[in-house]
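cache lookup: miss for this entity combination. No prior model stored, computing from scratch. Input as submitted by user K.M.:
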Amino acid sequence: MLTKPKMLVVDNDVAILNKCSQLLLGKGFEVRTAQSSKGALQILGKYRREVDILLLSLELPGLGAMSIIEVLKKTKSRILVMAMSADCGEEAIEAIHAGAYDCIRKTFTIERFWTKMDRVVERFTLARQLEILKKQRLSILKKDSYDEDTVRAIMNAIPEGLIVTDHHERIVFYNSKAADLFGLQGDTALGLPIGETLKNADLVSFITESMNLSRSGHSFGHQKVGSVEIGGMMMRVLTNSIEGDNGKTIGSVSMLHDVSQKKTMDQLKGDLVSMVSHELKAPLSALLMQLSVVLDGLAGDITTKQKELLGKAKQRTKRMIALVNDLLDLRRIEEGKAVVEIEPLDLGEILHRSIDIMTLSSKDKNINFDVKIVENLPLLSGDRTGIEAVFVNLISNAIKYTSTGGQVQVELKKAGKDLRLKVVDNGIGIEKGDLDHIFDRFYRIKTEQTKSIGGSGLGLYIVKRVVDAHRGTISVESEVGKGTMFIVSLPLEK
Amino acid sequence: MKKILLVDDDLDFCEATKLILESKAFKVSLAYDGKEGLNMARSEQPDLVILDVMMPEMNGYDVCVVMKADPELNRIPVILLTAVSQEMFKTSFTKEMGLMTEADDYIAKPVEPEELVERIEVLLKREE
């Protein structure tokens, strides 16, 4: 339902003003008036939405009509301007150029007035109708429920592959992108089990696993993320379970996103990291030797102060070496080589050796070690280097974050079907807020106390990755000022 | 006095390591590439050879293989030095190169002077 346009008449000639107002009011238009350009601008500022058509005298003193037309143009106003002038000469042409709709002579007859006014009103109505149509078209996409064709059109417009299954893992929907990925024709695959249609064992087991997790209530409503290779492309898969009204799993929806390019970039980045790390090792080796030579007085006597400074330099060099090693380990782990070689391992022996190395490097700190390793533990199938990294990182952290003379407790025993390692210290502890992040890559806790402690923020990330690769678990408890306890459980049977 | 031949193309590393080993009462000679190292091993008959793996002319693995195949040299213990990390070394080296080259020990660079000296002493003791 269209309302009548609202009018604003502006003229310093009160006779004209009244004449126009009367005519317009007579036909039921809402009319405002102003006698100066200033007054007009005030009304336009205050009642912007209350004015649709502006009858504007071109013979206003002061700022003048042109400035008003310019303001309207600048603010992209939808107000239509009907100029009024004595003879509609040069000034009228100028006004129309600047955006006025038309011009009317002030000496108008009533008939002439309405001829002009009807046209501008019609113009206004058309513009308004167009707007309403636009809104209606938009609202088709916005309405609450869609018909099937609309849904299909939307899904097909998604640039990712989309596959929906029911709870029997039968395909109930897929979009064009997914059809392309798996070479599915039309609707032929609908109703068939994913195992028969997707022809990609990795993806099928990924979806099945997600559904199983969801059914067992494990990851209710949670999504499972993974990577699967499909037709030479590396795809990131996100699978969510779909819950019915009763909370039961009624199906799954999987989204496939092509990450091949990202993968290539990651590879390049990783190669660069490896290359730089290796290139850094040679100069760092030389530097370490040179510092040792001078420190040991092999290049002449040095003063106490020189010795102190060089000692610090040597410590810094060693930290840098540790960082380079961490970066290389990280690279290896990110390439999915966290578990390189599985062999039966005597964890007791590996732990003894790790502790020996650690105690040697921490003799200045006078840490009191309490080691309990149960004898003759069953062998665990695992990767020696990975397990060593777990032990060394946890113990060296315990030492690092414990003050001089502190206590570190290490215990290894069999617990049910697991081997369990416990590393406890009475060090500075970890804030609750930090606990959630300590296994994140490059995460380091920044406090006054940790400022002077070196590290790359990779140690625990590596530990977590190795433990995961062995299908084990790691947990941590900590209290600030009291200490920290890490527990690693590694299953004996896979 | 035991004679050690250090073969490494990093001159700074050689110079510093030589001073450290000399301070532990070893006699040290230096070679800066694989070929030169092999020649010196023949001419000087050292008690132990330390070989960097990545070198111009002839790399450390090759020098080691030649030494171990030569009846005149195969009793001299060889330590391979590499910038490859300890971990990568274990998996790539011990399985393949280690078996092939028959090196007596390997050390990942950077190495602590004390550790280098310790490893040298262990190998020399074994020879006695």
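stored under new cache key. The mean pLDDT of chain B is 84.
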